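As promised in the previous annual report, we have extended the structural survey to additional targets. Below is the entry for Probable membrane transporter protein.
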Amino acid sequence: MALGITGLALLFLLTAGLYASVGFGGGSTYIALLALADLDYRLLPIIALICNIIVVLGGTVRFQARGLIDWRRIWPILLLSVPAAWVGGRLAIDQDNFLVLLGLSLTVAALLLLTEPFFRSQTVGSRPQTEQGFWFAPIVGCGIGFLSGMVGIGGGIFLAPILLLMNWSDSRRIAATASVFILVNSASGLIGQLMKSAWQQEGQVADMLLSYWPLFLGVLVGGQIGSFLASKALREHWIRRLTALLILYVAGRIFWQQFG
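The corresponding structure token record, generated without further manual editing, is:
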């Protein structure tokens, strides 16, 4: 492992700490770091989805305690995204196609990280909230959920800019919605990933994941302290820019390996 398990755990802790307070799980960054470490490509989405669940579970509880989760408006987004994430995770895909899809997903994720502040500045408080048809939210959720299950990205990084662009709500409630979305779709996608025929040998997944326990401990610790310490050490826009550069680098590295 190029980065080493200890180095990865520290980077995972930092990632979780930086993003826990803004409603994201950090899945795209976990995927990027795991890709740099040259892990078995089949493990990438499983580890990233587990880390997502660990991080956003605490965030979702905090958002709920603050009354920021509007379940009446969220359930249409989850209506098709949860089964779609399961299907995406269940879908068997070979290494070359997975890496190309991952590279494209990381590229889009990085661009959204860079442009989300623009969406926020253009929508928040600038015009009334936009009303969409009933099927708008389920269709958007379905597409993002399917992609999330396949590549191991919780989907909040795709959903939040769309909701900001549509002026769906204020930024705090959108962050809460993204947190719930990541949690339920990561869980659904993880179930699909674990049900793949390649992982059906008894104990295979558990044995593999056991050796990566420092990563899970790292995101647990980072997620708990993130909103209190890590997010204050660096302004949010710099966090997003630096993470976007890392993700773009990994995406470029993947494309170079595949097509260079």
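The chain has a mean pLDDT of 81. The two ends are 23 Å apart (CA to CA). These points will be discussed at the next consortium meeting with the crystallography subgroup.
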